[in-house]
Write a structure and sequence with these properties.
Elements: H1 2-27, E1 47-48, E2 58-59, E3 69-74, H2 79-93, E4 98-103, H3 107-117, E5 121-127, H4 131-135, E6 143-147, E7 153-158, H5 166-176
Parallel strand pairs: 3-4, 4-5
Antiparallel strand pairs: 1-2, 3-6, 6-7
Length: about 180
């Protein structure tokens, strides 16, 4: 009977410990930001074909030409990507050069998306198997990276760009000029 009693008290102790751990974790502030391990590192080497005929494809060499850029990862099937389109247009209007990577998309769908929502991109590469997206540590679409003129990733914006994010992204681009 004493073995059973020791076993039961052991189970109670383990359960109490787990409950305490869970309670502690729930009491901690939530962290919504998942940062890429690539921040501060050079862009991985890649070459992506053009996804639409109006714009050239995209290669890592295009991101190291001395001018900072926004690299926007998007897809025609992505609802938040459509929602951020006017804000990308505003960034372009204010002088930001934006390049795009279309994820797992068909050229005709990307063309229709751009015709409907506008095309702020100077280049668009098609990433059919999400290889570049994964190398960047991107967690989904849309996602935007600030790349400095040497091709180094300086900032990551997860999720759709909203009006309140435009000044922040412009400031990050200015910082990337230095």
């Amino acid at each position: 009977m004493t073995r059973l009693r020791v076993f039961l008290w052991g189970l109670v102790a383990v359960a109490a410990g787990l409950l305490g751990l869970f309670a502690y974790q729930l009491s901690q502030p939530k962290n919504d930001f998942v940062q890429s391990a690539m921040i501060g590192k050079p862009m991985p080497e890649f070459t992506l074909p053009a996804v639409v005929s109006e714009r050239p494809g995209l290669a890592s060499a295009d991101l190291a030409n001395g001018q900072p850029k926004l690299l926007n990862i998007f897809a025609s099937w992505c609802v938040p990507c459509a929602a951020e389109a006017p804000h990308l247009a505003e960034l372009e209007r204010q002088g930001a050069e934006i390049v795009g990577v279309a994820i797992r998309d068909r050229p005709e769908d990307v063309a229709a998306f751009l015709a409907r929502y506008g095309n702020p991109f100077s280049r668009i590469g098609g990433d059919d198997i999400s290889s570049v997206q994964l190398e960047l540590g991107s967690s989904g679409v849309p996602e935007t990276f600030v790349i400095d003129g040497q091709g180094v990733i300086r900032y990551q914006h997860i999720g759709d760009i909203r009006a309140e994010h435009v000044p922040l992204l412009l400031a990050e681009l200015r910082k990337a000029e230095v």
